[in-house]
Amino acid sequence: MLILVLNAGSSSLKYQLINAETGEVKASGLCERIGIDGVMKHEIAEYRKLVIDHPMPTHKEAIEFMLNILTHDDTQVIASIDEISAIGHRVVHGGEYFKRSTLINKSVIRKIEELIPLAPLHNPAHILGINICQELMPGKPNVAVFDTAFHQTMPEENYLYAVPHEDYTEHHLRKYGFHGTSHFYVSGEAIKMLDKKDTKVIVCHLGNGSSICAVKNGKSVDTTMGLTPLEGLIMGTRSGDIDAGVVPYLMEKKGMDTHHIIDYLNKKSGILGISGISSDLREVIRAANEGDHRSKICIEMLCNRIRKYIASYTAVLGGVDAICFTAGIGENADLIREKVCTGLEFLGVEIDKKKNKIRESTNREINKDSSKVKIYVIPTKEEYVIAQDTYKLVK
Ligand code: AMP
């Protein structure tokens, strides 16, 4: 069964056409600069890469163009859109309402709309993507897969903030957590690799956006992102944890309004803000190797924060069987994995530096044989999870 997986952002659209039974990715790509000019990066089954400039004034033209590329001329991978059985949509915020993936109908769309105040940039784009798919591919089932759903098993004491309780009951103020499909997939793979009954797993999803999740017996019990993706780790451009007192201080000192301060903490901080070089860790590592002080400090800060959370989540779980690294940084940056694990020996974590340096795209173990805690590198497959959930719901 062929599933089209869509991740509609405010000016971008990521897609994959996946055979849900075999996991084969027939085509994938990214439409960027929607509403500006429009450029598509398209890949056919990992052997042919195309970059196409094409006007995309709205998401509708982007989706139409993608369907055209999939079905026509020498880029054709399916004869017609009839071969697509269903569409799986990544939806960032499902609030407390969506605890699992769901078939989309009018009331589901209304609910995703109601959740817009919790994800003002993301949920409107997802609704747009859903509406356009319903228009361009009438009659096909659409499924919503939520970033927040996996974390709905967190206990109250871990998701509540220490603020007046009525703001939770009246305004839904609480920790929700994100990257749920990734944490679900990676912890599931780790549990298979551990091959034991009771499991305590810590997943470090380290990409441009980063979060850590404590998973007990397959269920999320705590995670670093909060009401919004701003909380927790130091990320590409997000500050992560910060004293809330910073907000009024900066607003007064720099005459910032709410919009400015949100932009400052989400887009100008993190790796970019500390290093002053880039939000891309590869460039910062390069600069650090050339002696740049701010880049060196940035790497130390990044790793310290991850290490602190691993130690605190070990306490939350009452021990740890496996620490997993995933996403762009987690899968590729051996330096960061080594630095994070160095200093955690007191927990029984012993990294094998040689195994850590081997580059592979499959699940692998990088701890010493003597290590009490397994250290895994597990490439994440968020689109695969979305395709699987969609398949199960429409089958
Ligand atoms: P993601 O959001 O999962 O696509 O991750 C993107 C981030 O991964 C980029 O911003 C890079 O900083 C980082 N990344 C990818 N490859 C490497 C690498 N070899 N070393 C360090 N960072 C990397």
UniProtKB/TrEMBL annotation:
Co-factor binding comment: Mg(2+). Can also accept Mn(2+).
The keyword Metal-binding is assigned to this record: yes
Residues binding Mg(2+): 7, 382
Catalytic reaction annotation: acetate + ATP = acetyl phosphate + ADP
PROSITE patterns per UniProt: ACETATE_KINASE_1, ACETATE_KINASE_2
TM helices/strands, residue ranges: none
EC number(s) recorded for this UniProt protein: 2.7.2.1
Residues annotated as site: Transition state stabilizer: 179, 238
GO cellular component, one term: cytoplasm
Catalytic residues, chain numbering: 147
Keyword Metal-binding applies: yes
Single biological process term from Gene Ontology: acetyl-CoA biosynthetic process
Binding-site list for substrate: 90
Pathway(s) annotated for this protein in UniProt: Metabolic intermediate biosynthesis; acetyl-CoA biosynthesis; acetyl-CoA from acetate: step 1/2
Cofactor names: Mg(2+); Mn(2+)
InterPro entries: Ac/propionate_kinase, Aliphatic_acid_kin_short-chain, Aliphatic_acid_kinase_CS, ATPase_NBD
Residues where ATP binds: 14, 205-209, 280-282, 328-332
Compartmental location: Cytoplasm
Family annotation (PANTHER family): ACETATE KINASE, ACETATE KINASE-RELATED
Family affiliation: Belongs to the acetokinase family.
Subunit structure: Homodimer.
Protein name (database record): Acetate kinase
Natural source organism: Halarcobacter ebronensis
